[in-house]
Amino acid sequence: MADSKVERQLAYPLPIAAAVRLEGRVRECANMVQTGGRLLDIGCSSGWMAPVALSRGFKEYVGVDRVIVGDERAIPGASFVEGSIFSLPFSDKSFDSACLFDVIEHLPKGTESAALREAYRVLSLNGKLYFSTPHASPLHAPLDPAWYLGHRHYSRASVRRLLQSAGFSVDRMFVAGGIIECLNHIRLLLFKHVVHRPLRRVDFVERLIERSHGRDRPFGMTVFAIASR
């Protein structure tokens, strides 16, 4: 019970429009998303993806999370809905794109396929799913403090199996992010939960993190995937 409580706190949604730096893993996620009509951001947290999507020509951005925190009007042109990933409050085939960034590792173990099937349900034919989750790297997983509390990491093969079992075809999969990004994440957690202050930016650290992205790596912090319905 204590472990799940800690993980819920670590994953609790940020307030709408809270500052999220578009760099490292976050930038890699954003770079995958192409233009489209309606984008559903599952596990949207602060809705950081909304300005990116709208600037790229999406006509509508909808963020959904189990709890929406803050003013839902804080991002012009975006809408936010509270709901469960296991029962999304949308009709079949109602979106042509969906994001599922760093979500499945927080779900109850064994429910990942059910969540992905629900994402599949709300996507139109040939709709795109943009996906990320922590990578089961022997170098990087031990650097995730939550890993010791049951925070799951996934191999490329397990991500592929999960996506295909839900009906998706995998268009692209790659791994990116290095040890420096993992260590910086520990720094973030310390500032957030111990020091209770914003993380100070260190330029050379940020440059090293950026260099760990933009190409597929045999080992890395995060698995990224683009899949089609």
What layout of secondary structure does this protein have?
Elements (H helix, E strand, L loop, with lengths): L1 H9 L14 H8 L5 E5 L6 H7 L4 E6 L12 E5 L12 E7 L10 H11 E12 L21 H10 L3 E8 L2 H17 L7 H9 L10 E7 L1
Total of domains: 1
The poorly predicted ranges are: 1-10
Helix content: 25-40%
What is the CA-atom radius of gyration, in angstroms?
17 Å
Strand line-up in the sheet with most strands: 3-2-1-4-5-7-6
**SS field, number of helical segments:** 7
What structural class is derived from the secondary structure elements?
alpha/beta
CATH architecture: 3-Layer(aba) Sandwich
Tell me the overall shape.
globular
Query: Per DSSP, what share of the residues sits in E-state strands of 2 or more residues?
Result: 15-25%
Task: Round the mean pLDDT to the nearest integer and report it.
Answer: 91
- Biggest β-sheet, characterized? 7 strands, mixed
CATH topology: Rossmann fold
Provide a compact summary of the structure.
Helix content is 31%, strand content 22%. It contains 7 helices and 7 strands.
Structural key phrases:
single chain, 229 residues, 7-stranded mixed sheet, 7 helices, 7 strands, 31% helix
Task: Please give a structural write-up.
This protein is an alpha/beta fold and 229 residues long. It has one domain (2-228): Rossmann fold, CATH 3.40.50.150. Helix content is 31%, strand content 22%. It has a seven-stranded mixed sheet with strand order 3-2-1-4-5-7-6, sandwiched between helices. The radius of gyration is 17 Å and the shape is globular. The protein starts with a helix and ends with a strand.
